[in-house]
């Protein structure tokens, strides 16, 4: 997934509100940009870190510019969660994700369960595979971790995936890690114990967990390598 336009360089001043961030541009101006991330963004920013923002090209939009990525001195961290589903769909379609190859039809945002929509529904004549995609940015104790805040929505999705397995279909919890400065993946039980418990229950019930690292670069985003799940 290449960015259609060149990203704009700056440094982050603060994340002023949940969906707002103040960014200092290279000419010294400070502007408020859209922060498309509903999580805590823990370990994803500090004042003065280098950032890249995108320009929507729409002067009528309330916040014309969007925070795309932050650099912590070691690597770029992709914080735009809205790009992840499209990126993973693109990777599945190209055959880049070994565990999700072989399906002839890919659909997005299909209703399932109780008032939920599946991120990706993969099908062929005889099979259905339901894929919930999660955007991972938290690093603690040298591990990639999810979630970075309590997520009742994420808990609900795990329950829905377990129900999919009971119905005789394949279910996958897919974690897309948008940084490269750790090794291995685990659930953040110290942040959301309920999610961590449901994750273990889901694995025992037959839900599959697949974790891949995303290469984050000012030129674009690419699915890179598989990440192992650790305890």
Main attributes of the structure:
single chain; 231 residues; alpha+beta; 6-stranded antiparallel sheet; 6-stranded mixed sheet; 3 helices
Walk me through the structure.
Strand 5 and strand 6 form a beta hairpin. It contains 3 helices and 15 strands. The protein has 231 residues and is an alpha+beta fold.
Short structural description:
The chain has 231 residues and is of the alpha+beta class. The protein has helices at 84-94, 152-166, 193-205, and strands spanning 8-17, 20-25, 30-34, 50-55, 65-71, 76-78, 105-112, 116-123, 128-136, 138-140, 143-146, 170-177, 185-187, 208-217, 220-226.
Task: Please render the helix and strand layout as text.
Blueprint: E1 8-17, E2 20-25, E3 30-34, E4 50-55, E5 65-71, E6 76-78, H1 84-94, E7 105-112, E8 116-123, E9 128-136, E10 138-140, E11 143-146, H2 152-166, E12 170-177, E13 185-187, H3 193-205, E14 208-217, E15 220-226
Parallel strand pairs: 9-12, 11-13, 12-14
Antiparallel strand pairs: 1-2, 1-4, 2-3, 4-5, 5-6, 7-8, 8-9, 10-11, 14-15
Helix pairs in contact: 2-3
- Assign an overall shape: globular
Average pLDDT rating: 96
Coarse structural class: alpha+beta
End-to-end gap: 32 Å
**Helix-strand pattern, N to C?**
EEEEEEHEEEEEHEEHEE
Tell me the radius of gyration. Answer: 18 Å
Beta-strand content bin: 35-45%
